[in-house]
C-alpha cells in the first residue's frame, strides 16, 4: 500500500476523481470500469511510482483537457534544404501541416510540441595546437515561431 493514499481515501472520491488520480500516476484503467474496479486497479498498482511527465506530455495532457483551445502561430522559414517545407506535427492522433511564414490557428498542444522540438548543431570552437578546427555541440530549437 502506498503511504500517499489509503483505500478509505479512494472511497471518498468520485469515479471521475479516481480516473484523474490514476492518470496522474500513470495507472491504466479499463474505460468502463466501476468505482470498485477502479479502486482495485489503483490499489493493485501499489508502490509503482510512474516517471515524471515531460513538458511535452504535460502539454499534451493540457491539450486533451481543453481540446477547443487554440492559439495563432507563425512558424518561420529556416535555413537549409528543408527550411521552406511545411512543418508536420502530430497531436493526439491528428496530423497538422503548418505552412511557414503564415499565421495559422492550431490547438494549444501543437505549440508545446514545437516548443519542445530541439536539435543538436555543431559549431566551430576555435583550433587546437595543431591547427585543426575544434567543434562543440549546441542544442537549439528546431523551429522558430511566434504567437499572437
Ordered list of secondary-structure elements with their pairings:
Layout: H1 7-11, H2 15-24, H3 35-45, H4 55-65, E1 70-75, E2 87-91, E3 94-98, E4 104-107, H5 108-116, E5 118-127, E6 133-141, E7 145-147
Antiparallel strand pairs: 1-4, 1-7, 2-3, 5-6
Helix pairs in contact: 2-3, 4-5
Q: pLDDT under 50 segments (min length 5)?
A: none
Tally of individual domains: 2
Instruction: Tell me about the largest β-sheet.
Output: 3 strands, antiparallel
Tally of DSSP β-strands: 7
Radius of gyration: 22 Å
Proportion in helices: 25-40%
How would the global form be characterised? elongated
Quickly count the helices. Answer: 5
Task: Spell out the helices and strands N to C.
Answer: HHHHEEEEHEEE
Q: Structural class of the helices, strands and pairings?
A: alpha+beta
Strand content: 25-35%
Instruction: Compute the separation of the termini in Å.
Output: 48 Å
Output the strand order for the largest sheet. 4-1-7
- Tell me, rounded to a whole number, the average pLDDT: 82
Oligomer: single chain
Amino acid at each position: 500500500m502506498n503511504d500517499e493514499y489509503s483505500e478509505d481515501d479512494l472511497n471518498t472520491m468520485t469515479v471521475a476523481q479516481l480516473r484523474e488520480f490514476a492518470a496522474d500516476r500513470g495507472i491504466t484503467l479499463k474505460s468502463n470500469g466501476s468505482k470498485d474496479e477502479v479502486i482495485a486497479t489503483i490499489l493493485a498498482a501499489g508502490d509503482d511510482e510512474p516517471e515524471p511527465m515531460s513538458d511535452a506530455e504535460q502539454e499534451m495532457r493540457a491539450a486533451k483537457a481543453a481540446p477547443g483551445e487554440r492559439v495563432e502561430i507563425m512558424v518561420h522559414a529556416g535555413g537549409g534544404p528543408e527550411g521552406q517545407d511545411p512543418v508536420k506535427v502530430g497531436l493526439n492522433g491528428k496530423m497538422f501541416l503548418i505552412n511557414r511564414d503564415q499565421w495559422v490557428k492550431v490547438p494549444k498542444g501543437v505549440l508545446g510540441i514545437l516548443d519542445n522540438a530541439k536539435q543538436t548543431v555543431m559549431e566551430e570552437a576555435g583550433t587546437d595546437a595543431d591547427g585543426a578546427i575544434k567543434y562543440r555541440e549546441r542544442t537549439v530549437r528546431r523551429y522558430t515561431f511566434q504567437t499572437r
